[in-house]
Design a protein that fits this description.
Blueprint: E1 10-12, H1 15-23, E2 29-33, E3 42-49, E4 52-58, E5 63-67, E6 73-80, E7 83-87, E8 90-94, E9 99-102, E10 108-112, E11 117-123, H2 125-136, H3 157-171, H4 180-197, H5 203-206, H6 214-225, H7 233-240, H8 244-255, H9 259-276, H10 278-281, H11 285-291, H12 297-308, H13 312-318
Antiparallel strand pairs: 1-3, 2-5, 3-4, 4-11, 5-10, 6-9, 6-11, 7-8, 7-10
Helix pairs in contact: 3-4, 6-7, 6-9
Length: about 325
C-alpha cells in the first residue's frame, strides 16, 4: 500500500499547531475548520529521500488550507477521500486515484473531505530545473510551470507505483536508504516520473520536439561540448553554420533565451559539478570559476546563487562531508 508507517512527527487536535508545524516543512499556510463543531485529528509522517521529502498527511475533519508558495513545487497524491484545489484561477477536484501539481506561482486553496489522506511530495525547484537541463540539454530560462489538471485525474500510475515501492522501503527501514549513491538514484527516478507524469511547459522538449531547427540543436551541442572555452557568439554561429542574427532569432523562437544565456547555464552546471567534488579534488572556488569560463568572481557568485540558491562556497562546504 502507498502509506508511511513510521512514527508520526506530530499528532494534534489544534488547527493552529498543525499549520505552524507543517508550514516549516511545506509552504507557509493556514488551516481552517469547515465545520467549527468538528474535531481535527491531524497526523504528519515524513520520509526524506535526499533533497526530496514525502509527507503522509491526514486531517480527520473537513478543512480548508490556504497556502503561500516558496520556491518548492508540491505534488498532491491522494490515497483516500476527496480534495478540491484552486490555484491561479483554476479549480480541480482530486479523488483517491488522482494527483495534482502545485506551482510556486500563487496562493493555493485546498479543501479536503474528512476522510481525505494524501502523500505530498515536496521538490525544490532547482532539482526539477537541473534534471531538465541535464537530460534534455535545454536552458531552463522560462520558469517551469505544470499545467493544472482540469479533472484531477492525471495519468500518474507509474508515479503511484514507484511511491508504493519507496514507502515500502521506508517502512522496512531498508539499508538502501542509507547509501548516498542509491539515494541519488531514487531521487533521479522520482524526478523523471514527476516530470513525465504531469504536463508542463517543457513537456515538448522532453518528448524530443522535432520542430527545433538543426542549427539550434547544433549550436547547443557545440556549447555543451565547449562550455569552458572562451566562446563568442561568432564562434557558436560559425559552428552552427548560420549568421549571428539567425542564431539569435532561432534561440529566441525555439528556446526562449539567447545563445549566450544557454552557454552561461552550461558553465554554471559544470561549475556546480566541480564544486561538489572539490573536497576530493582540492580545487578552490576561484580555480573552478576560472576553469569554467567565469573571469569575474563576484559576478560568478551572484549568478551561481541566483541559480542554485546557495553560494559556491556553501556548495563546497555542504558536499565536503
Amino acid at each position: 500500500m502507498m502509506e508511511l508507517r513510521c512514527k508520526p512527527l506530530l499528532e494534534t487536535h489544534d488547527a493552529v499547531t498543525a499549520s505552524r508545524h507543517l508550514s516549516g516543512y511545506l509552504w507557509p499556510h493556514s488551516v481552517a475548520m469547515q465545520q467549527p463543531a468538528t474535531r481535527l485529528a491531524f497526523r504528519h509522517r515524513l520520509a526524506s529521500l535526499g533533497r526530496i521529502s514525502i509527507h503522509a498527511l491526514a486531517y480527520g475533519a473537513p478543512v480548508t488550507i490556504a497556502a503561500r508558495p516558496n520556491d518548492a513545487y508540491l505534488f498532491l497524491v491522494l490515497t483516500s477521500g476527496m480534495g478540491y484545489v484552486e490555484q491561479d484561477g483554476v479549480n480541480a477536484a482530486v479523488r483517491a486515484i488522482g494527483a495534482c501539481p502545485l506551482n510556486p506561482s500563487g496562493e493555493a486553496v485546498m479543501r479536503f473531505s474528512p476522510d481525505e489522506m494524501n502523500l505530498t511530495l515536496r521538490i525544490p525547484g532547482e532539482l526539477l530545473r537541473h534534471w531538465l537541463r541535464r537530460e534534455t540539454g535545454t536552458a531552463v530560462v522560462e520558469p517551469l510551470r505544470f499545467e493544472p489538471p482540469t479533472s484531477g485525474q492525471q495519468d500518474v500510475a507509474g508515479l503511484r507505483q514507484y511511491l508504493e515501492f519507496l514507502c515500502a522501503e521506508v517502512n522496512r527501514d531498508s539499508p538502501a536508504l542509507q547509501q548516498p549513491a542509491l539515494l541519488r538514484q531514487f531521487e533521479n527516478t522520482l524526478l523523471g516520473l514527476v516530470l513525465s507524469s504531469f504536463p508542463h511547459n517543457y513537456s515538448g522538449v522532453m518528448q524530443g520536439d522535432s520542430g527545433v531547427p538543426p542549427y539550434v540543436a547544433a549550436a547547443e551541442r557545440f556549447m555543451r561540448q565547449n562550455a569552458t572555452r572562451n566562446l563568442s557568439l561568432a564562434d557558436v554561429a560559425a559552428a552552427a553554420g548560420v549568421s549571428e542574427r539567425s542564431l539569435q532569432a532561432g534561440f529566441r523562437q525555439y528556446r526562449d533565451c539567447t545563445p549566450m544565456s544557454f552557454l552561461r547555464e552550461q558553465r554554471l552546471d559544470a561549475a556546480r559539478q566541480r564544486l561538489e567534488r572539490a573536497a576530493r579534488s582540492g580545487e578552490s572556488v576561484t580555480d573552478i570559476a576560472l576553469g569554467c569560463g567565469f573571469n569575474h568572481l563576484g559576478k560568478f557568485a551572484q549568478l551561481y546563487r541566483a541559480r542554485f540558491g546557495e553560494t559556491p562556497s556553501e556548495t563546497r562546504r555542504r558536499t565536503a562531508g
